[in-house]
Amino acid sequence: MTAACASSGRGGAPGVFSGFTLVEVMVALAITAIALVAGLKSTAALTNNADRQGRLLLGQLCAENRMTELRLARQLPGVGDSVTDCVQAGLTLQIAQAVRPTPNPNFRRVDVTVLEAGQQVVRVTTIVGRN
C-alpha cells in the first residue's frame, strides 16, 4: 500500500492520516458531560416534584378527614389548639388544629395545618357553624 492510499479524507496531503485531535475529543467529551449533568438535574427535579405532589395529596387527605370529623360531630368545636397524628399510605403526618372565635358567636374559624417533620405540607381553613 502506498502513502497515497492512506491519505486523509479531508483532501489533505498524501501521507497524512485522518482522525480526531486530542482537543476535538476533549471538546466532544465536555459537551457530552454537560448534557448528561443537565439530564441528571432535570430527572432529579422531576423526582422531587413527584415526591412533593404525593406528600401534598396525603396532607390534603388528612386535612379534609379532620374537617369532615368536625362537621360530623354536629357541635361547635371548642376554642383552642390541638395536635394529632394522621397516617396515610404508611406516612405519619401531624395535624395541628387551631380553633378561633369569630365576631358571630354561632361560628368558629378552624385552621388545620398538616406537618411532616415540622415542615408545613398543607394548610386548610374553614368556618364551622352551630348545627
Automatic annotation (TrEMBL):
Boundaries of every Type II secretion system protein GspI C-terminal domain copy: 57-128
Origin: domain of life: Bacteria
Coiled coil: none
Localization in the cell: Cell inner membrane
Family per similarity comment: Belongs to the GSP I family.
Assembly mode: Type II secretion is composed of four main components: the outer membrane complex, the inner membrane complex, the cytoplasmic secretion ATPase and the periplasm-spanning pseudopilus.
The protein's name in its UniProt record: Type II secretion system protein I
